[in-house]
Amino acid sequence: MTLDNVYKRLLDNLQTGVMLLDNELRLRYINMAAENLLEMSDRKVNQLFIGDVFINAAEDINEMQAALNSNSSYTKRNVEFCLLHGKTISVDYSINPLDEQGEVQALLEINSLEHANRINREESLSSAHATTRELVRGLAHEIKNPLGGIRGAAQLLAQEFSGNELTDYTNVIIEEADRLHRLVDRLIGTPKPPDMQDINIHEVLERVRSLVAAEVNGCGIELTRDYDPSIPPIHADAEQLIQATLNIVRNAMQSLTSPDVDHTLGKILLRTRVLRNVTIRSTFHRLAASIEVIDNGPGIAPDIIDSIFYPMISGRADGTGLGLSITHGIINQHRGSIECESKPGSTRFTVVLPVSDSTLFA
Description:
This protein is of the alpha+beta class. It folds into three domains: 3-112, Beta-Lactamase (2-Layer Sandwich); 117-188; 197-360, Histidine kinase-like ATPase, C-terminal domain (Heat Shock Protein 90), CATH 3.30.565. It contains eleven helices and 13 strands. It has helices at residues 3-12, 32-38, 42-45, 50-53, 58-69, 113-160, 167-188, 201-216, 238-256, 323-333, 357-360; strands spanning 17-21, 27-30, 54-55, 74-83, 88-100, 103-112, 197-199, 221-226, 234-236, 266-280, 283-295, 337-343, 346-354. The chain has a six-stranded antiparallel β-sheet. Helix 8 (201-216) packs parallel to helix 9 and helix 9 (238-256) packs antiparallel against helix 10. The longest helix has 48 residues, at 113-160. The two termini are 22 Å apart. The mean pLDDT is 81.
């Protein structure tokens, strides 16, 4: 392997976007992190003027040129750039002139603020969720003790009232106590470790699709898929991922059958994509799998969108608020992340799971 290839591999494994420009601010090279941020390939941007990539950014481009002309470094925080294809990104950037064999060039480093904020949100949510789960487990234990006493007393009363019409009431007490006991069991879950194996994520999604296909039949809901066949196997527990994805899809189904829906055809899309050079919960991964569940329902209320992964938080009057909490716990066990973006007419859940090096080189 040549030294140039070694340097390129090192640059492509950086989380910071790196762009090499000539003395006229034309792009000579961008690394993989910059490709992901700009959503453009190194080949496509090669020889483009930086102003053709960052649209309507004359002030920043003039500052970059001034730094290059004066042979001095320049850093700017909290900058919004509009890209060639219309997307807007928020970044910090630094430009550093360098002299390469008598030719003046510039090294532009860009750090995505959205990326940094996402990591902070993931860490904050994981910490808060862990604290909440411990609190709920303690509360559940305190609830189950008196429930056992209530059920036992109801059984004794039922024996005293044998053959009496009052046994209908004792049966209701017993049944409701059992229902609450099951609810508490669901709330605290079973903390067993996942059975990790190399699996095809699309087999998981097809299993989910087959489970809900009958449920959406005749409900005015269209279930479609858009899969990326290039995703390699991931190391995961297939049954747990089926449960996690099923919870999200069923949430979408229930939102599409709510009275707030103002269209005749509900749509749920299962979409997968391969991601390169991503950071999940502060850990860098060369490759990851993205799973999206998108629906065109009424959206999630803004007052609960930041807490939907907590136990007992639900947007439905008859919801238990356990499904997404369980899903979050499963994704955490798999060292992944889950996010939700929602507005009226579009709700998107995105799960990102790492692809281990063992599956890359198997």
